[in-house]
Amino acid sequence: MTKLSLLVLVAAGAALPSALLAACATDNGDSVHGPQFGPPPERPEGGAGEGSVTEGGGPTPDGSTGGDAEADGSMPPACTSGTMAVLAGTDTTLSGAVQINGGAWNGAAIAGGAALSAPSLLAFGTGFVGLTRGPSDALQSVSYTASWSGVTAVGSLKTLGAPALAALGANAQAVYLSGGGDPNKFFRLQNSATSWTTTGDPVMPPGGTQSFGPSAGAVAAAGTDLVFAQAGDTEGLYVRKWDGAVWSPEPGLAIFGAGTNKVAAPALVSVPGKFDTILLYGDNTVNHVIGFATRDATTKAWSSAALTQATAQTPEPMSAALISPTTVLVAFRGNNGKAYTMTGTLGAAAVTWSVPVLLLADGAATVDSPPAVAKGVCGNDAVAVFASGGQVKATQLHAGAWSVPGPVTGASGSRVSVATR
């Protein structure tokens, strides 16, 4: 890849402390999608109070919503459709768990698997498919239909980071950072039914240079395009697309004004409206402020880089999900080790970002790794999964408040992912 000379994004909040003071700040409402996506009410984790379990109903300790009472005291219909799946692990272990129709979590260890980087999980077919960086950097696959499969090596492929997953048409697509004999180059894999291709397609336009970099990439499906983003060795941020046949440079190729933290993967999320894709990344300033860029849905041109909020800061990959037609939820671990969320509101001509707030009301709580988020099911707006002290927990966003975090039974480890259907 040609290394272009980029302007470094100068973070207006670089001198600010890491998202600590802003976590308790209240947004003025202009940059959030209605009151339901504003800062949650203060409550101790596991304790009574607003947003916690009350005698009349409310979120349950395991993060489900079964039996929640409405404001008029009536009970909503029982959830009959909605599944959440979690993969979690460590350098030597992997586990999976599911919650179906708001019921109890059910999970167990997956023998032979590991998560040297965060595992990846995608709703696919009638269930879920996952990829993970297993023992000795082996690229491993796992799936869930009625139960979790065992892990399967994807040929003899090796990876050096978290594989990126997206569904494009009827197929699952993955891009991974290679290890082994061809390290630090990006390749694409495809799953058309139940298994992955075992020979990677180089992320490379015809007659061009194969994409390479120091950290994992990100993918998202936008129409008929598979959009790919990565950090480069020179701290630039690069994008390409795959049209189902060949890789092409995106218009501009490099995101203008984006100086990125090259050791952390960016995040991509597909959205409706004027833009079809939002790209998020931690910048290369000392506090790693989260920046973003958008791809125009019509012209496919990328915008210049801009800040989200000066107090949104992370040195690590983040998780992002579209949770309503106009709202993107972003979760990240701040420089202080605590979990935060913020929302992006999709307008007719721009995206506006809320002030980041603590995911956990306990101001002393830290998490083991970046939290993961997905669109909610069973009447909830979103679900967030995180690990703390090796214990995996889930919390759900409903009516503006996160439920009391509850354990994800059967899942354990310091690195997590979540997907819903």
Can you give a write-up of this model?
Strands 20, 21, 22, 23 and 24 form a 5-stranded antiparallel β-sheet that branches. Residues 1-75 have low confidence and may be disordered. Strand 22 (339-346) and strand 23 form a beta hairpin. The protein has no helices and 30 strands. Helices cover 0% and strands 41% of the residues. It has one domain: Neuraminidase, CATH 2.120.10.70. By secondary structure, the protein is mainly β. The protein has strands at residues 83-89, 94-100, 105-109, 120-124, 127-133, 138-144, 152-158, 164-168, 171-177, 186-191, 201-202, 218-222, 225-231, 237-242, 247-254, 267-270, 275-282, 290-296, 306-307, 319-324, 327-333, 339-346, 351-353, 357-358, 372-375, 382-388, 391-398, 401-402, 406-412, 415-420.
